[in-house]
Amino acid sequence: MVILRKHYQRKKNIIYARHTLATRIQLSSETISEFSQALRSLAKDCNFKAVSAEQLREEALRDALITGLCSANIRQRLLEYDELSLEKAIQIAADSLERAEKFSHSYQQSLPHQAAVTSMDDEFSVNKEDQFSEFGSNSDQHVAAARSTYGTKVNRRRCYFCGRIHALNRLKCPARNAECFNCGLRGHFATVCRKAKKSVATVNDLHLTSIIAGIHTSLSRSTITAEIAENPLMALLDSGASQSYIKASVAKSLGLTLYGPKTVIALASNESVAQTIGFVDAPLKIGTRVYDAMKFGVVENLCTDIILGQDFLSKHRKVVFEFNGDLDSLYVGKEVCNLASAKDKRLKAFMNAAERQGLTLNKNKSVFSVTELKFLGHLVSHVKIRPDPDHLQPLINLKPPRNGSNLKLCLGLFAYYSKWISKFSEKLKPLSTNTSFPLKGKALSYFNQLKADLLKACLGCIYEDETFVIECDASKFAIAAILSQKGRPVAFNSRTLGKSELRHPAVEKEAAAIVEAVRKWGYLLHGKKF
Q: Same structural domain for residues 179 and 254?
């Protein structure tokens, strides 16, 4: 087996493997998780092992030397060695390969036909604008024929077609089949295009948008879930985009038909542009509302699945974004007005209607133009409700109980507010089973935590069209559940387990938590997906 392995199993080149790892960069289509996994895969062939600090320094210097070499030929020769020390690498590179490369350059410069090759390259540099359309298989054959006729490898110099420095081999030029974003012809990049640069302001069919590399967390409040062909997609509501867009990979996976010409998209900066590869039509569903035949521009590497621009937003009378900030709401139209003026108009209209209907209001008991209202022990505000802080004050100021009767009083007060506290039964268990006074350890800790949770207690309002999410959990002695919408809790539920339930396995306790939650909120969940 040893002989067969030596004969058939190829020995790994550690030098090349470490060079590949050091020069590996993240691809534009790769996520950070995929990139890290690729690095781990490459590191397997590097044969890392415990060495002394001196040896580690020598290996790091050797790898940096190979990676930083200007000459690709010398780097290639060094990477052919399976084992290579720093001293040997310097000796081979400096004493042998570098000297040979200099002799080769000086020899090629002395050849009489070198000038002919250079002039031949100049002929391929495209002096006329219409010559870009001739870049194709025929011109590639002419270049190859010229190379074989006039000599061997030409010196590395700046390419006329891509603007980069490499051996002037047209077959290997990265711009060979590329399409110019400036003139639209194939065979060169826009950076070296000889046609007049198009100004962003004069390009036809421009669309201002905020296409970026990826959605920042600050934009999460502007994203919603939409559906195309019953496939859930992440949609970004962008009032700065004049048109709606869809990611190219998403359009392809949905099997949408591409049509129409390519168009240029102007970004927030006048110097930045992107390009659509065409358009698609697809029915869009948001909640229970369906939009037939929505037109989307198809863009590569879009920051999200869909961007819904002004062509979509303008279909509605108004679109509301909730940011939950500290200031009052701001209405923006042809002129920006404060919410107070809008409230005054509505209040005046209400008072006029009440007067017409003969209703009498006691102004001493009425409250006007407020953002929060106290009602039956609750503090009600926009899309939020919480316990009235004035009612909570006696409980917050309550000192730890010193006997059994005081403890029962505390348990009763906490039980009244159980619907405001997540996993209430689990947090109350150490208190209800406590028999020693004054409170110590876990009992005292949970007593203070319950008071702190009440101060922060807040539930969101319930939306009829939004999907409910139930999160369930079970401990050794209690089960709990949270009902939420749009990532915000709207109700809590919990209870302790009975004597027989305490002996159930963990799976059955989790199942009991689900059943209990569905029974508790069945009136909200009936007939809906959750």
A: no
- Going by C-alpha positions, the residue among 513, 494, 486 that lies closest to residue 453 is 494
Q: What are phi and psi of 423, to 5 degrees?
A: 55, 45
Rounded average pLDDT per 10-residue block, the chain, 530 residues: 65 78 82 81 80 82 81 77 79 67 56 41 40 40 42 61 78 80 80 66 42 54 85 87 89 87 71 79 88 88 87 83 71 49 74 88 80 85 85 85 88 86 86 86 88 86 88 91 89 90 92 93 88
Count other C-beta atoms under 10 Å from residue 346's C-beta: 9
Instruction: Quote the domain boundaries for residue 130.
Output: 114-192
Which two tokens mark 365?
A: 């008991």
Alpha carbons 280 and 243: distance in angstroms, whole number: 13
196 beta partners: none
**Helix pair angle (424-432, 441-456), 10° resolution:** 140
- Contact indicator for 270, 342 with CB cutoff of 8 Å: no
**CA nearest neighbour of 347 among 368, 370, 374:** 368
Asked whether residue 47 falls in the same domain as residue 92, the answer is yes
Instruction: For residue 368, tell me if it sits in a domain.
Output: no
Is residue 411 within 8 A of residue 428, CB to CB? The reply is: yes
1-54 residue pLDDT tens: 667 666 666 667 788 888 888 888 888 878 888 877 888 888 877 877 787 888
Phi, psi for residue 337 in degrees, rounded to 5: -125, 155
Measured between its terminal Cα atoms, the distance across the chain in Å is 60
Angle at alpha carbon of residue 14, lines to 11 and 18, rounded to 5°: 145
Q: 438 preceded by cis ω (within 30°)? A: yes
- Structure tokens, 79: 């990477």
Listed residue (461, 527, 514) closest to 489, CA to CA: 461
The total of structural domains in the chain comes to 5
Final residue of a structural domain among 50, 75, 109? 109
Tell whether the torsion through CA atoms of 223, 226, 232 and 236 is positive or negative.
negative
- Please tell me the pTM assigned to this model: 0.34
Burial letters for 237-259: b for 16+ Cβ neighbours within 10 Å, e otherwise? Answer: bbeebbbbbbbbebbeeeebeee
Strand partners, 337: 331
Alpha carbon distance 396, 269 (integer Å): 54
Q: How do residues 185-233 score in pLDDT, each as one tens digit?
A: 878 888 888 776 554 333 344 444 444 444 555 677 788 889 998 888 8
Q: What pLDDT is recorded for position 269?
A: 56
